[in-house]
Amino acid sequence: MNNSNEKYDNKTDQTLIVVKGNFSKDVLENKESTKKHVKAVSSAIYATISKHDKASLRCVGAASVNNAAKAIAKATEEFSKKEIHLKCVIKYVLVNFNENGDKNGILFEVTKG
Question: What is the rounded (10 degree) CA torsion for 93, 71, 69, 22?
Fold first, then answer.
């Protein structure tokens, strides 16, 4: 396994979707916000793949990775209604947060397969 992380440049990627994690410390409020966010990300995946044939989902933290997985599953269901299959490649990347430096992240690259 290669120990060096791929540096991900989010300034040039038109297919980038940033996936967020937790929204609130209140469990019920967070659950509702998460459902809305997952639905919005799923819709963004569908629109982005329809336009560019690819969507890149950037996640930092376990909660955002979980939300991305749910959104990809929902988008996969929608594309399957049109008999279009999706494939997903998962990469470990470094994400730049300007003055806060780089953070480890996960990049889901979803394409028509």
Answer: 80
